[in-house]
Write a structure and sequence with these properties.
Length: 210
């Protein structure tokens, strides 16, 4: 054994757990965060119909749950998995590889300064529980608004005209309405919320046609 096993009692605190561990994350997600499962389903349902060979990026894919949900709905898409954590990316790749050969894992730290998201062009970018993690938890509202706008610019840039960005997240870092406004300022159109339960939501927008 290379590393010691983490202490079990970190599971026992109110907000404890081993969220950085992909296996632990996957077996605890439904119990610890019950809204996350309907959120993932609602993300797939919020998508327009995706023709074969549609290129879908799963931004900050973690263990690949959004990618797997979208792939289950549209098995002929081509997937790009993006995450900075090699262990999580590997779990995501293994999960999705059982469902398709059309998958490319990309280990990358997603830019937070507005440069284009790598790995494009994309027809669709999905991001589940991802944007608040990239923006960060401990930022004031004005800073969060500006970081969200830059992040949406990064996503918008490699999307094809008519491409879509579908976000499932919670509002821990920034309320939903300013997130939607940041998406509009970044150049998205048809920005709206498709589903909301408690602090969880699914929202999206489209890149204007050329
Ligand atoms: C809460 S997890 C969500 C994972 C997954 N999308 C899901 O729905 O379960 C947040 C993910 O964001 C990734 N992440 C955070 N900041 C990142 C950055 N700047 N670039 C790439 N990945 C990042 C983490 O490695 C982690 O996998």
């Amino acid at each position: 054994m290379d590393d010691p096993i983490p202490n079990w009692n970190s599971n026992l605190g109110r907000s404890g757990g081993h969220w950085d561990d992909g296996r632990w994350y996957d077996i605890h997600l439904e119990r610890r965060m019950p809204q996350a499962i309907p959120m993932l389903e609602e993300m797939a349902l919020a998508l327009p119909p995706l023709p074969p060979s549609t290129t879908v990026g799963d931004l900050a894919c973690g263990t690949g749950n959004a990618a797997a949900t979208v792939l289950d709905a549209y098995p002929e898409i081509e997937l790009v998995l993006l995450d900075e954590d090699p262990d999580l990316l590997s779990i995501a790749h293994n999960k999705v590889e059982r469902m398709t050969r059309n998958v490319e894992p990309l280990r990358v730290t997603v830019p937070t300064s507005g440069e284009p998201l790598p790995g494009g062009p994309y027809d669709v970018v999905v991001a589940s529980l991802a944007l608040h993690a990239i923006v960060g938890h401990d930022v004031d509202e004005a800073e969060a608004e500006s970081r969200y706008e830059l992040l949406f610019r990064s996503i918008q840039e490699p999307l094809e005209p008519g491409g879509h960005c579908i976000v499932g997240d919670h509002v821990g870092t920034l309320p939903l309405y300013p997130q939607l406004k940041a998406m509009e300022r970044a150049g998205f159109t048809d920005v709206d919320c498709a589903w909301r339960q408690d602090d969880f939501f699914v929202a999206g927008g489209r890149v204007p046609d050329a």
